[in-house]
Amino acid sequence: QYFDAISISEEVGKNKFTDAVLVDCVNKLKQKTNFNPEEVLVIGDRIDKDIIHAKKHNFKTALLQRADGRYTQQNQVLLEEHKPDFIIKSLTEIQTVLEKEARMKK
């Protein structure tokens, strides 16, 4: 219902921090939809690897910032300069984010 394409680095056979995974996802989206980069949501737990990389492609971003997260301190340093579109504490919040986005488009 919410996802038109999902790309997983292990399935693509490339490191998730390369363009290969994003390009794979874009190609899947172009085959299934009228692709619009602003409708892509990249979810990651690192600003330096996930958020910055996705923003270069004009994708929406959600920073997964768990209370006991491995990159919480590192992310705090980068947060002011590289703001994600959303900050979530759990993957269960994704549905809420997507519903909010859908309402804003109407």
Structure notes:
The protein is α/β, with parallel strands linked by helices and about 110 residues long. It is about 45% helix and about 10% strand. The protein has five helices and three strands; from the N terminus they run ααβαβαβα. The protein has helices spanning about 10, 20-30, 45-55, 70-80, 95-105; strands at about 40-45, 60-65, 85-90. Strands 1-2-3 form a three-stranded parallel beta sheet, covered by helices on one side. α4 (about 70-80) links the parallel β2 (about 60-65) and β3. The longest helix is centred in the N-terminal third of the chain and has 14 residues, at about 20-30. The radius of gyration is 14 Å and the shape is globular. The chain starts with 8 loop residues before the first helix and ends with a helix. The mean pLDDT is about 85.
Number of helices: 5
Largest sheet: 3 strands, parallel
Cα Rg: 14 Å
**Mean pLDDT across all residues, rounded?**
84
Strand order of the largest sheet: 1-2-3
Distance between the termini: 17 Å
General form: globular
Order of helices and strands: HHEHEHEH
Q: How many beta-strand segments?
A: 3
What portion of residues belong to β-strands?
5-15%
Structural class: alpha/beta
Helix content range of the residues, please? Answer: 40-55%
Low-confidence segments, given as residue ranges, are none
